[in-house]
Design brief:
The complex is a heterotrimer of chains A (404), B (153) and C (409). Chain B has 153 residues and is mainly β. Chain B has one helix and ten strands; from the N terminus they run H-E-E-E-E-E-E-E-E-E-E. Chain B has one domain. In chain B, the strands form three sheets. In chain B, strands 8-7-6-9-10 form a five-stranded antiparallel sheet, with no helix packed on it. In chain B, strands 2-1-5 form a three-stranded antiparallel sheet, covered by helices on one side. The longest helix of chain B has 12 residues. Chain C is of the alpha/beta class and 409 residues long. Chain C has one domain: Thiolase/Chalcone synthase (Peroxisomal Thiolase, Chain A, domain 1, 3-Layer(aba) Sandwich). In chain C, strand 10 and strand 11 form a beta hairpin. The chains are: A alpha/beta (404), B mainly beta (153), C alpha/beta (409). Chains in contact: A-B, A-C, B-C.
Chain lengths: 404, 153, 409
């Protein structure tokens, strides 16, 4: 019989962090990231898109594949059209023979899992990669597949768009928000997207009228108020405090919180984003934020539909409940405002399912590092990033990131 | 990467897969459907908090208790949210234009605490509108028992 | 080493049978989750986060927790979905380890399940082959052949078993003995699916030959079932239960390689019985757990073995003996409930296979054995350290966890 082989796995010295469990400040940092251009049809396999961002992120981090301790990918069997969708992403994500796992939600949640892997002390460097390709899957079918199979699913009434429209209707009625205000959000983001080289859709010269005149989907939602589902991938590299010490301009995770709302027909009301509020509360507690409107300098919100951004302002405490429309009208969330929101164009500029939330984290990190090129906002030290998954924003996650 | 001028289109393979699923609905939904066959709308009522779920649920999600009480609910209810759909999702997943717009609503039956998604037979709809369910007790498919909703009065 | 001690303070299992037509998916899972809350003596309000997973192909529902989590006590709580195919249950358990070990979430309810009867198991397993379907279609392989051949069904296992038998000297008689051992253990487990008390290797040898060397008696069933585990800090676990099962380490290694690969560099010319990633994952897990000699220090093993040969193969790949020694160790009786290193006292995956739950049920059994809660199937020896394993992907995803009756110092 062959002699037993012993495996020596080079273990990094994993010190015990003595900080209390509630405080994540300066324990995990984003040290690099990469995005593909977001396209209606990337004309490339998802493996190649994942490879592209993995190689680019490692290069930006000054790291090699060998340096990765753990990889978490975000992808979905129904979007990718294959069972165990992470299986064949092992190679292009640099995960061959490494501690790899998959979160079947937006990449912003996969990042949370990677954060816990680093905070545990077992891993120092994590790669998070998210992808999907709308050119491959039946665009609005996976949303229908999330419905209750014993009732809603086959009645063919609810889908991502009609569900969002129902939420918009409920919110507009409760908050007195107008369709013009919602169109204004879309126009803002689409104009911002014109300065983002990777965005898919943009509209030069903020024109709410053009948004209102676009193809009607489910009232009040018109095509330009709905994010374009498309192809793409993005990745970011996380490092423990020790590993980040060598990095240039690490962006620290100051706090993170996530939560889950009830099934859409069972919520008390659709007129507010309950789980986003809970997520923000948990995040703010860790990050020491008690006055978000003044302490957050920039926000990247995952708005699958334009009205969601107005609802998010309220849930995040940027303004009082039911005041999202007024807050938007104040101009605070425009590019030059006190709290610019979605200077990247947001999901309205490009929505890669499973990646759009992680993209928001990347965009927020870019702002802090001064990496955002034409859509850079000056002097951002503290930024908020939001990701969501599910119908009517059922799952929400919030990060506060800081440059110091 | 990405579509470039002069770059050949990446070959695509389309794999025809038609899996058939048979989801057990469970005893609570079975009772709901059986009751509709008798023209009755049954909601489940939590013994702890009194919250009435329609469609019914075995577990009250707020109290985490098993719900074994039932309430017969009237066909009438109030629109909590509504939308006029100009598109529907086609079998291939795309949004295709509807020949005629459809009104979809979330309706809260009188006495219920959850909403039920509804097709509203009405050109106009507004939040707060009063509506009533139309039951087709003889429908062959249980999903068609709760056929539609129409404005009240 | 996890920043915080991580321990299991409760386990819940549903009944595992082939068809639960009386409950929908959410209600089936409730049975296990409710049992776990009761076992741990806690309520949903005490839980800080949930981790859940299943294998989507079998139920045909996208993210079933969106509809179902209200049934599991997750109202207004954080929910994380982790799905990795056959290793899902193990991956979800690893998620619990990290969520608690990070210090961010003290009490995490981990839930893994499968309701295979709602779908078509063969179809579900065949979709594993879709990973390579595009490449195969390009090579001119007929789509119906791809569907029939399957990715996770008997096809792969047959090559793996034949190769393992050749390299290890394992015989078909050993396969029969493994099946008998497991099904007898399962008979003592109220939550198992196939209970066959008194089953003999000779009876197994008479079952229908599917594809040499695999007989019907060597193969797992398709099961509806769910498993829930409460992961928490060492401190809280000690308040909840007299004997928590500490999770010393979790490790995994993903060795899946594409048939064709990037630019045709395909690396699937790998013997499916090698399972290098299992050895790597095990070595990592032992190292983090501070285990220097697993053969001596591990008291009990729950390898993931839907096919009989895999129990022996993974026993070796988990570094519990030299390669090729497992068949003789089986012969010696060491793997029995009363043996020196009992294997699959639960009955194993070969007796119960609700795919999404199976890899978590390996962790659950290790925890229950350490906690002394296994009743009739409690092993004779005192269990100090146990290793739980999960296998999946097409061939090469492996996850390993090491549990102990003591926290790491």
């Amino acid at each position: 019989m062959p002699a037993p082989r012993t495996y020596w796995i080079s273990s990094r010295p994993t010190g015990r962090w003595d900080k209390g469990g509630d405080n994540v400040d300066k324990e995990v940092a984003i040290i690099a990231y990469a995005q593909t251009k977001y396209e209606a049809d990337a004309n490339a396999s998802r493996e190649l898109q994942v490879l592209e961002v993995t190689v680019a992120a490692l290069k930006a981090a000054g790291l090699k594949r060998e340096d990765l301790d753990t990889i978490i990918t975000a992808n979905n069997d129904y979007l990718d059209g294959r069972t165990i969708s992470n299986m064949r992403l092992v190679e292009p994500s640099g995960a061959w023979r490494k501690n790899e796992s998959k979160v079947e939600m937006d990449g912003a949640f996969a990042m949370l899992y990677a954060v816990t892997r680093i905070l545990s002390g077992d891993h120092d460097i994590a790669l998070v990669v998210a992808e999907s390709q709308a050119s491959v899957y039946g665009t609005y079918l996976p949303g229908i597949m999330m419905l209750d199979p014993t009732f809603d699913r086959q009645r063919w009434l609810l889908n991502e768009v009609s569900a969002a429209a129902l939420q918009a209707s409920s919110y507009m009625d409760a908050a007195g928000v107008s369709v013009e205000q919602i169109a204004g959000v879309a126009a803002k983001n689409l104009e911002n997207a014109a300065l983002n080289p990777v965005a898919l859709r943009s509209l030069k010269g903020a024109d709410a009228k053009k948004v209102l005149a676009s193809r009607p989907l489910c009232s009040p939602i018109t095509e330009l108020m709905a994010s374009p589902l498309c192809d793409g991938a993005c990745a970011l590299v996380l490092a423990s405090a020790k590993a980040a010490a060598k990095a240039e301009k690490p962006v620290w995770v100051k706090g993170v919180g996530f939560s889950h709302d009830s099934y859409l027909t069972e919520r008390g009301s659709l007129d507010n984003m309950g789980s986003l509020k809970l997520a923000a509360e948990a995040c703010y507690k860790q990050a020491g934020i008690d006055d978000p409107a003044s302490q957050i300098e920039l926000a990247e919100l995952h708005e699958c539909f334009a009205h969601e951004e107005l609802m998010a302002y309220e849930a995040l405490g940027f303004c009082d409940p039911m005041q999202g429309g007024a807050f938007f009208d104040s101009g605070a969330t425009k590019k030059g405002g006190e709290l610019p929101v979605n200077t990247s164009g947001g999901a309205l500029g490009a929505n890669v399912a499973c990646a759009a939330g992680l993209t928001r984290v990347i965009e927020a990190a870019m702002q802090i590092r001064g990496d955002a090129g034409k859509h850079q906002v000056k002097g951002v030290k503290t930024a908020l990033a939001h990701g969501q998954t599910g119908l009517c924003a059922q799952e929400n996650i919030v990060y506060v990131l800081g440059g110091e | 990467m990405g579509a470039k001028a002069g770059k050949d289109p990446v070959p695509r393979a389309s794999i025809p897969l038609n899996p058939v699923f048979n989801w057990s609905v469970g005893n609570w939904m079975e009772y709901f459907y059986d009751s509709l066959k008798e023209g009755k709308i049954m909601g489940s009522k939590c013994p702890a908090c009194g919250r009435v779920s329609l469609p019914p649920r075995m577990i009250c999600e707020r109290c985490f208790v098993k719900v074994e009480d039932w309430v017969e609910l009237p066909a009438t209810g109030t629109v909590q949210a509504c939308t006029t759909a100009s598109v529907k999702v086609a079998e291939n997943g795309d949004l295709v234009d509807l020949e005629a717009p459809e009104v979809i609503a979330m309706v809260k039956h009188d006495g219920a605490d959850t909403c039920i998604a509804a097709r509203l037979e009405s050109k106009d709809a507004s939040v707060g509108m009063r509506v009533e369910a139309v039951i087709d007790a003889g429908a062959a498919n249980v999903l068609d028992l709760l056929a539609a909703y129409r404005p009240l009065g | 080493m996890a920043k915080n001690e991580v321990a299991v303070a409760g386990v819940g299992l549903s009944k595992h049978v082939s068809k639960r037509r009386d409950v929908n998916i959410a209600e089936l899972v409730w049975e296990a989750v409710n049992a776990c809350y009761e076992d741990a003596g806690i309520k949903p309000k005490d839980v800080d986060a949930f981790a859940t997973g299943n294998m989507p192909a079998f139920e045909g529902v996208n993210m079933p927790e969106e509809w179902g989590a209200g049934h599991w006590g997750a109202y207004n709580k954080p929910v994380l979905r982790i799905t990795t195919g056959g290793t899902t249950g193990g991956s979800v358990a690893h998620g619990g380890y990290y969520l608690v070990g990070s210090g961010l979430y003290d009490m995490v309810m981990c839930i893994a399940f499968e309701k295979q009867s709602d779908g078509n198991s063969t179809m579900g397993l065949n979709t594993v082959a879709l990973a390579d379907a595009a490449a195969q279609l390009q090579l001119g392989v007929d789509p119906s052949f791809i569907a029939a051949f399957g990715g996770g069904a008997v096809g792969v296992a047959v090559y793996q078993a034949s190769s393992y038998m050749k390299s290890s000297g394992c015989t078909t008689n050993h396969l029969d003995k493994v099946a008998a051992l497991c099904r007898n253990n399962a008979a003592l487990n109220p939550y198992s699916h196939l209970k066959q008390p008194g089953l003999t290797p000779e009876e197994v040898a008479k079952t229908t030959l599917l594809q040499y060397p695999i007989r019907f008696g060597h193969v797992c069933p398709a099961t509806d079932g769910a498993c829930a585990m409460l992961f928490t800090t060492g401190e809280k676990a000690r308040k909840l239960t007299d004997k928590p099962a500490y999770v010393l380490s979790c490790a995994s290694a993903s060795d899946e390689a594409a048939l064709v690969g990037i630019a045709g560099s395909g690396t699937t010319n790998v013997d499916p019985c090698e399972q290098e990633s299992c050895k790597i994952a095990a070595a990592r897990a032992y190292e983090i757990a501070g285990i220097k000699d697993p053969r001596k220090e591990i008291d009990l093993a729950e390898p993931y073995a839907p096919f009989a040969h895999q129990l022996l193969m993974f026993y070796e790949r988990l570094l519990l003996c030299n390669e090729g020694e497992a068949p003789s160790i089986l012969d010696s009786g060491s793997m029995n409930l009363e043996g020196e290193l009992p294997v699959c006292p639960s009955g194993g995956v070969i007796s119960t296979n609700a795919i999404g739950a199976s890899a978590m049920e390996r962790v659950a059994e290790c925890a229950l054995q350490i906690m002394g809660k296994c009743g009739e199937r409690q092993v004779k020896k005192e269990v100090h350290k146990a290793v739980a394993h999960g296998w999946g992907g097409a061939v090469n995803l492996n996850v390993v966890a090491v549990l102990s009756d003591e926290p790491r110092r």
